[in-house]
Amino acid sequence: MTNVRPMPTEPAAAEDRADPFTMTLFHSALRRDVTRVRLLLGDPGLSVRRRRRLGRHLQWVMAQLRWHHEGEDHSLWPVLLDRDPASRVVLDAMEAEHESLDGPLLALEAAARGLVADRATAADALAALDELEGPLLAHLTHEEQEGLEIVRRALSHREWQAFEKRAWIDGYTAADTLRFLRWIADGVRWRPDLVRRFGVPAALHWPVLKPLSRSARWPALTVWSGTPAARVPSAAGSTSSR
To answer: Entry's InterPro entries (predicted)?
Structure first.
C-alpha cells in the first residue's frame, strides 16, 4: 500500500464525520452506464456512428475509473490505515480488487478502441464487458458496505473534501470538470437532501444541477439519445446514508 498521507492523522469527531456521497454518486453512474452500454451493444440495429460514439464514451469512462482507483490507492487507503489499523484486511482487499480489475478494464478499453476504429464488433465489446461487469459491481458493493464505513469512522467531512480535491479534482481542467459533472448528474433524481450532500447550495439547484442533468440527454452530447438506454436512471441516493 502506497504511503502517501496528504491529510493530518487525527480521527474524525462523531458530529463531523465524512459523508462520501460523491463516491456513491460515482458508483451509481458506473452502474447506470454498465446497463446502458449492455442495452446498446445488444441492439442489432446499432448504427456505425453510434457504435463509434459508444467506443469513445467507454474509453472516457474507463479513464475515469482508473483515475478514481489511483486516487484511492495512493491518497486514501494509507490515511485510513493510519487512523484505523484494524481496517487493514478490508483496505488490502480494496487494493487487491483494484489490481484484479486492471486486466478486464484494459480489455474493455481495447474493445472500445476497436469500436471506434471499426476493428471490433459489438459482440467483441459485449464479451469484454461481461468479463468486467461482475468483478466491478461486486467491488463497488464491497467498497460501499465496508470501505466507506471506514471513511465515515476515520475522517471528518472537511478531510474528505480535501482528499477529493487533492486526489481527483485538482487534476481536472474546467472542461474536464464540466464533462464529469454532466456525466455524474445524468439520471439522478435530485431530492433536496441529495442537493445538500452534493455540496451545492439549495439556491443553485435549479440553475446548476437541473440543467446539468438535462444537458446529459442532449443529442449532441450523449451516445444514448433516442434509445431505451437513455431512460436508465442513476440509483444515487437510493441506499446510501450519512
So the answer is: Hemerythrin-like (IPR012312)
Q: Is residue 31 part of a domain?
A: yes
Residue position matching grid coordinates 465489446? 125
Cα–Cα dist 100/17, whole Å: 30
The answer to whether residue 193 sits within a structural domain is: no
Is 35 a residue whose pLDDT tops 70?
yes
Count CB neighbours of 136 within 10 A.
22
* Whether the Cβ atoms of residue 180 and residue 169 lie closer than 8 Å to each other: no
27's CB contacts (< 8 A; 6+ apart) are 140, 143, 144
Q: Which CATH number covers residue 32? A: 1.20.120
Could you tell me the pTM of the whole model? 0.86
Residue 226 lies in a domain: no
- Flag whether 215 is in a domain: no
How does DSSP classify residue 234? Answer: P
Domain coverage including residue 121: 17-173
Indicate the SS3 state at residue 236.
Answer: coil
Backbone angles phi, psi at 156, to 5 degrees: -80, 165
Cell 447506470, residue located: 32
Domain count, the chain: 1
- Asked if the model's pLDDT at residue 169 lies above 60, the reply is yes
